[in-house]
């Protein structure tokens, strides 16, 4: 089997799955131009992504690439970190989660996250 035939088979298998199919509704989670710094160290760089209802989403990457930082930002778990600066927007069901009137406790009750290991 050649590389080309293997790649074609992977593409065909992907097209036959339902996991990548978008729904026709608006995204339940929208992240726009999100950047994050821990003091002078930038950890996230202009993240843009949206997740629609019914989609299964996984963040995969090497250690230290920002996966947990992004998840903690979505759940506002970074709020009390000294020197933290966030720019951009995160909207859940159209509501900006960093708006001053956002109820952080209610937000966290609406979210579920599974980390590989707690730290």
- Ranges where pLDDT stays below 50 over 5 or more residues in a row are none
Write out the strand line-up for the largest beta sheet, numbering strands in chain order.
2-1-3-4
**How many domains make up the 3D coordinates?**
1
Number of helices: 3
> What is the end-to-end distance?
44 Å
Mean pLDDT: 83
* Topology, number of strands: 4
Q: Please write the string of helix (H) and strand (E) elements.
A: HEEHEEH
**Under the CATH scheme, which architecture would be assigned?**
3-Layer(aba) Sandwich
Global shape: globular
CATH class: Alpha Beta
Describe the sheet with the most strands: 4 strands, antiparallel
CATH topology: Rossmann fold
Query: What's the CATH superfamily, by name?
Result: P-loop containing nucleotide triphosphate hydrolases
The share of residues in extended strands comes to 25-35%
Q: Radius of gyration in whole Å, from Cα?
A: 17 Å
What fraction, in percent, of the residue positions are helical? 10-25%
Which structural class fits the helix and strand makeup? alpha+beta
Q: Can you give me a brief rundown of this structure?
A:
The chain has 119 residues and is α+β, with helices and mostly antiparallel strands.
């Amino acid at each position: 089997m050649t590389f080309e035939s293997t790649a074609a088979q992977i593409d065909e298998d992907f097209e036959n799955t339902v996991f990548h199919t978008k729904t026709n509704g608006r995204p339940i989670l929208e992240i726009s131009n999100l950047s994050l710094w821990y003091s002078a160290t930038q950890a996230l760089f202009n993240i843009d992504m949206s997740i629609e209802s019914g989609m299964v989403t996984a963040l995969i990457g090497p250690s230290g690439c920002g996966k947990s930082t992004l998840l903690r930002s979505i759940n506002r778990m970074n709020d009390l970190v000294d020197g933290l600066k966030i720019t951009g927007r995160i909207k859940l069901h159209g509501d900006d989660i960093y708006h001053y009137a956002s109820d952080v406790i209610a937000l966290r009750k609406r979210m579920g996250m599974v980390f590989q290991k707690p730290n």
